Structures are given as C-alpha cells and as structure tokens.
Amino acid sequence: MKNILITGGAGFIGSHVVRLFVNKYPNYRIVNLDKLTYAGNLANLKDVEQAENYHFEKCDICDFDRIVEIFKKYDIDGVIHLAAESHVDRSIKDPFTFARTNVMGTLSLLQAAKLCWNGEWEGKRFYHISTDEVYGALEFDGTLFTETTKYDPHSPYSASKASSDHFVRSFHDTYGMPTIVTNCSNNYGPYQFPEKLMPLFINNIRNGKPLPVYGKGENVRDWLYVEDHARAIDLIFHKGEIAETYNIGGFNEWRNIDLIRVLIKTVDRLLGNPEGASERLITYVTDRAGHDLRYAIDSRKLKNELGWEPSLQFEEGIEKTVKWYIDNQSWIDNITSGEYEKYYEEMYANR
Ligand code: NAD
Ligand code: DAU
Fold this sequence. Notes:
By secondary structure, the chain is α/β, with parallel strands linked by helices. The chain contains twelve helices and twelve strands. The strands form three sheets. Strands 3-2-1-4-5-6-10 form a seven-stranded parallel β-sheet, sandwiched between helices. The protein has a three-stranded mixed β-sheet with strand order 7-9-11. Helix 1 (12-24) links the parallel strand 1 (3-7) and strand 2. The protein is globular, with a radius of gyration of 20 Å. The model has no long low-confidence stretch (mean pLDDT 96). Bound molecules: nicotinamide-adenine-dinucleotide (NAD) and 2'deoxy-thymidine-5'-diphospho-alpha-D-glucose. Nicotinamide-adenine-dinucleotide binds at residues 7-8, 10-14, 34-37, 39-40, 60-62, 82-86, 101, 105, 129, 131, 161, 184, 186-187, 193. Residues 86-88, 131-133, 185-186, 196-197, 200, 212-214, 219, 221, 256, 288, 295 line the site of 2'deoxy-thymidine-5'-diphospho-alpha-D-glucose.
C-alpha cells in the first residue's frame, strides 16, 4: 500500500500518526484529509508540512463526492480513519454533530472506498480508529475490557463511535471490504486540544485558574502516551489481521484525583513553584451527566499476536507531556485566546 489516506490528521492523535508515517515511509504518499474543525490545527504538523510525500486536503468526511474525487486523485489504497468529534462534554450538549460526523462521515468514507475499490480488495485496507468507551463502564472490581466485551455505550459520543464501529464491520461482512477496528484507552501527550483533562489542567495550573474536578474525582481512566498509540496503529495497519479487532491500552489505571495531584506536583516543580502550591486550585464541580465510572483495557491480544507494548513508563510520559506544554505555551495560547475561550467560559458558567 503506497497511497494512504489519513483522516483527522490535523487533530491530536492524527497529527502523531501523520508525522510517524511521513517520516518513516518516504515511499508512501500520505494524504491528510481534515475539515479543520475547532479541534483541527495545522500548526500540529509544522515539522512535516514541507515533506514531499505529504499532502493536505481540507474536506468534510460527510462530503461523499469530494471524498470520491480525493480517492481517485491520489489512487488511495489504504485508509486510516481518525476524523471524529471526540469530546464527551460536547456530545452531551450537541449530539447531532456527533451522529453526523462520526456515523454519517464514517459511512461516507466506507461508501467511497467501496465505490473506488470496486471489489478489488487485494492490497487494500480500511482501518478504523475507535475507543474503549464503546464498551461502557466497569466497576472497581479489577475486570478489563477485552475484544469480546459487549458494546454498552452511555454518552452520545460513545454511542456514535459504537455505531461507526458496527458500520465498518458490516462492510467487511457484507461486501468483503478488508477492515480492521481498534479500540484504545485515553491518550495523553503533546498537541491535545485543551478541553481534555490533561492539557486543560496543565494550562490552568500555569495560569492559576481553577481545576474543575467532576464529581468526587473518583472515576478511573487508563492512560497511554500518544506516540505509543501511533506506533500501535502503524503495526496494526501493516501486520493486523483483516476483520480483527485489537484493544490498545497501557495497563495504566489512574483515579482522576490522583492523576490531578501528580499533574499539580509536576507543573509546580517545573515552574519553580513551592511544592503543592497549586493544590488550592482543585475545585469540585457538578459531575458529568452519565459519567462512566471506570475504563480499563486488556491489550494482551495485541501483545501476544503482534508484539506491541507501550514504550514509556507513565512517570516519563507525564514529565515529557508537562514539559512540552510549558515549552510550547504559544501553541496553547493561540488556541485559548480565540473563540474557544468564550466556549469554555460558557461551558463552566453553570457548574
Ligand atoms: P481530535 O478531536 O483531537 O481530532 C479530531 C480531528 O478530526 C480534528 O483534526 C478535526 O478537524 C477532524 N474532524 C472532525 N470532524 C471532521 C469532519 N466532519 N471531516 C473531516 N475531519 C473532521 O481527536 P483525537 O483525540 O485525536 O481522536 C482521534 C480519533 O481517535 C477519534 O476517532 C477518537 O474517537 C479516537 N480515540 C481518541 C482517544 C483519545 O484519548 N483522544 C482514545 C481512543 C480513541
Ligand atoms: O477512553 C478514550 C476516550 O478518552 C476517547 O475516546 C475520547 O475521545 C477522549 O476525549 C477521552 O474521553 P474522556 O471523557 O475519558 O476524557 P476527558 O479528558 O474529557 O476526561 C478524562 C476524565 O477526567 C473523565 O473522567 C472526566 C474527568 N474530567 C474531565 C474534564 C475535561 C474532569 O474531572 N474535569 C474536566 O474538566
């Protein structure tokens, strides 16, 4: 496969996948297709935008006709589909946008691939990036999500992702399209939009702003450094079995409040503040509606079958991440100085 369409490449995870592929595979043509919503930012790709094997197409994944044009223009033979509305809180306020992009957008891509590949599946691959949230929520009982855990989504975001997963699998079962789906846990690292827990809190600590902890801060998430996710995507895209599902996670569960304390400690230390100075910023606010209690991924299948393991220890990943946001303040300031600031203030006005 030489002509790869990566959707959502201007977003958080997508930009790491684009960077990895552009640098690692000079013989591939990498086409980044992105609508550039509020979450898409071409500044995430400054270091690769001049590369000869990199191309950018501003396009909505719901625009079927343009997708077909792009497939033909670049003779696309592989798709890595990351474009999505990705923030749970936004899905609670505006579920329509999530159904449109995540469900109809995925279906448009699948239909375009079906039309352009025209039953010639040899050497083709449609790889869909999904989330552990489709599996629902776990209790505090040590159980893990496996690839056979029943889907049980609770938020409009996870319901839309679950629906898109089903469509992708249906295109394999019905038409024989070579598809793969992976379900990953919470990612963290550079270039994450500062509405998500880690970049939001790092930035608020830096600016002495309140840290809005939902509920009691007892919910658990399983954190993976974004470059490890990108490495897994590369491996699975090339070596994964068609029609299979792989879970991706770091066996790295943290209660939100414990993680927040680690962030406070790290940011304070790197900024030269007295230890624990920012603890006073912790502010308990009304819980997220339908807030899933615990996510935890069992990624043993990926390890056993393809040999993937996370490369970074969590302490190392947190240190790198906090340092990146502190060293790249202009990246975050460019985002928070615009429309987003208004959205953020409105969002928290009622909490
Ligand atoms: P993100 O919100 O940072 O980026 C999404 C990208 O998709 C943006 O560049 C945006 O412009 C683009 N996009 C949105 N709607 C589009 C449309 N209609 N047409 C074309 N482009 C559009 O998201 P992320 O956190 O990087 O997540 C990427 C993917 O990985 C998503 O599918 C998400 O569900 C999945 N995922 C994310 C995580 C995580 O922790 N962030 C974990 C597991 C899976
Ligand atoms: O599990 C994978 C998912 O991880 C991805 O599919 C999603 O795209 C991604 O956004 C993420 O979802 P979460 O809802 O887990 O991430 P978020 O960063 O929004 O929140 C992490 C935890 O922190 C969650 O329990 C809610 C809590 N939280 C979040 C924010 C933004 C707070 O307590 N306060 C906050 O201000």
